[in-house]
Amino acid sequence: MLNDLKILATDFMHLSRDALHIHLGLAIYVTAILVFRRGPASPLPWLAVLAFELVNEALDLFHEVDLSGAIVDIVNTMFWPTVALVAARIHLRRRRVSEPAE
Fold it and tell me: What's the rounded Cα separation, in Å, for the pair 91 and 41?
């Protein structure tokens, strides 16, 4: 059933499965930022994406054992949320260092 839904989504949006992972990773990340009311420097939205992806891959592995495909899917899903988290944390750290002490 889940696999059928993924096929339907890729066909409807004319995306490869890899591209679908990238888009959904970003969509879950932005949604988690809004739902949890945390900025992108918070690890909570990133962890939400990771949780969704690990559950997704566990379900995929249950139906078809393809560990290398699962690793590629995790990397595709987590890449841009990871970049956003690291960039936001670097920005926050630099901003704190440049603020004058009271």
Answer: 9
Tens-digit pLDDT profile for residues 18-52: 999 999 999 999 999 999 999 999 999 999 999 99
Q: What is the DSSP string of 21-86?
A: HHHHHHHHHHHHHHHHT--TTSHHHHHHHHHHHHHHHHHHHHHS--HHHHHHHHHHHHHHHHHHHH
Phi, psi of 8 (to 5 degrees): -60, -45
Tracing tokens 């890899």 back to the chain, one arrives at: 18
Q: How far apart are CA 79 and CA 98, in angstroms?
A: 29
